[in-house]
Amino acid sequence: MIVRLCLALAALAGGLSAANVAVNLSGTTNPAFANKLSDSDVQVVRFVMQASGGDVNVSSVTLTVSNATQAAVAFTGIKLFFDSEPNGTFDPGEQVGTTQTIAGATVTFNGTFTVKNGLIHELQVRVDIGASTAVYGEAFQFSIAAGTDIGLPGAPTDTVSGAFPFTGNALTIRNSVNQLVPGTGNPASPRSVQHGSQNVAALQFALDSLVPVAPGELVGLDLQSLAISITTQTASQTAAVSALALWQDDGDALFEPGSGEALILARTPADLGKWTAAGNVITVTFDGAAINVLPTILTGQARTFWVGISFAGGADCVCEVSVNRSNVQGSLGTAADFFVTSPTAITGNVITVANLPKPPAAPEAEGEGGCSTDTRQVPVFALLIAAVAGFASLRRALKRKL
Length: 402
Hints:
- The chain is mainly beta.
- It has 2 domains: about 160 residues, Sandwich (Immunoglobulin-like), CATH 2.60.40; about 180 residues, Immunoglobulin-like, CATH 2.60.40.
- It contains 4 helices and 28 strands.
- The strands form 6 sheets. Strands 15, 18, 21, 22, 25, 27 and 28 form a 7-stranded mixed β-sheet that branches.
- The radius of gyration is 39 Å and the shape is elongated.
- The relative contact order is 0.15.
């Protein structure tokens, strides 16, 4: 009797053997990335689940969302998928529960799925992004904060393990991500020019609308304004700068104003509010219709510009021309049309304006046989011939008299 009771208890204990599901961040989760508005089914994070000691049934998963107030504005839907086979894909029938919206710092998906013993399954979180421009520049992360956020109907026999919290990389809402790039023809060495020189090549730079990090999607840069800085050696030298012009590059490394490059807009000190001198720095703003009509620089494209500088006559000057990332503005603002922090600025090399000495005259070419071809010497030869002829006439006259 006692033996039969022990066997029954042992069988019961075996039927209640503990199973565990281990949770971790997936190695296939995406890096930090940027994404446009009005996009759907954007993956933000993947987690992995692996059962041991038996299959584990899961009845709910709760996610924690950073920046929750803005997340409620940014996302019109949040979805959770479980790769049940597992085969590395997420079919519509593998969605856990229903699409959720954010009402606080967490969102819970109620739906039962089974983590099979010994297999590695993935959970995928997707979002639908709304159209509110108020969330440009906002970043969001999704995480499983604790083991208690995994609902197990078999608890406490079934358990959850892992080094919680597990947090995905950030998704930032952007319209474009851009970079300043030096032009291939950007002046590489200091130069000296004459007083009154016009349209001197001062700076070449490109605006590069970067391809987004996967799985992100972006639109491109619609340029609103550019501010170019002229830094002179002293404050008094700012008066030597008479104009600054922005040119569309024609695709080579040469500055050919009016023949290769196309003029976009020119500014002079008479352009109040667009030409501002403060100490030894002049800030020149290019904006308005001439800039706004430029085509959008689509993601994956770049546009190159030249800056030409002109100087007044009779005034010495030493200057540099530069553009800073913070002074390039897209039509949707800096949070939407973001510029990466490196490089911060592009600078052309030093220009020295002075009364330069005239170069020496080139040596004159000589004709055949070493005789000069300079027509200014023709009268000398004519005089010589005339003198010889006169001398001969004089000899003949003297002979007759004798």
